[in-house]
Amino acid sequence: MRFDVVTLFPELFAPFLEAGVTRRAYASGQIGLKFWNPRDFADGNYRRVDDRPFGGGPGMVMQAEPLARCVQAALADRQTAAAAAIAAPEASPPPVVLFSPVGAVLRHAAVAHWAQSRGAVLICGRYEGVDQRFIDTFVTHQISLGDYVLSGGEIAALALLDAVARLQPGVLGDAGSHQADSFNPAMDGLLDCPHYTRPEDWRGQRVPAALLSGHHAQIERWRRERQLALTASARPDLIAAARAQQRLSREDETFLSAATARRQRPAAGGPKGEKTL
Prior knowledge:
There is one protein chain. This protein has nine helices and ten strands. The N and C termini lie far apart (72 Å). A five-stranded parallel β-sheet has the order 2-1-6-5-8, covered by helices on one side. A three-stranded mixed β-sheet has the order 3-4-7. The chain is α/β, with parallel strands linked by helices.
């Protein structure tokens, strides 16, 4: 797959592409990356890519024309690269993605989709935003990382690329590592359980006995129960989704019911622990 990244700051990506296990996806060619700077397609001595917004207001807006030329060059280059590799040209233009608050929040299902795609053109906006006419003409998808605003789309693009890279075969040391990730369907979409390593006793806190038992079934049940408890506490919406998809077993439901009853049980001595007569 290939991702073309449209950014005013391609240098921000270099450290992330050369460190950590995900670098294997780029070194092996499983993911191809090419960077495009809109300034290279702007007019004038100063190569301006932004201007004041019509109607007034703070900040600047990225102009449509430099971005349009940049994206068109990236699309043409993809076709040229396919021809040079004696590969079939892309039957249709690749997705053009803008990182924006308008988009759906990036979740595991979307990452899994992009991890098996042919790639996309990623637009990293800056300033107050991008001229809406460019969005209406070229953008096919919009993605958000959450309900907050970043100074640019580069961090969001890196998040997508990192998440996609780690799902490529051979990138992680253990081929099944990502199957145990939080949100993965293999984990019923729930949060992962807590993890422990040596020493067994750290500052008076011991590793849970079940993990030291050597009993495989006991270990797996402990992990499942901790997964359920943590998800029910931190992300009850994920429990509800798993229940709606009939991913929870009878044993899971029994544990959750007991855990809920324990939480709702009054403290010893009556409400709020006060003494009773």
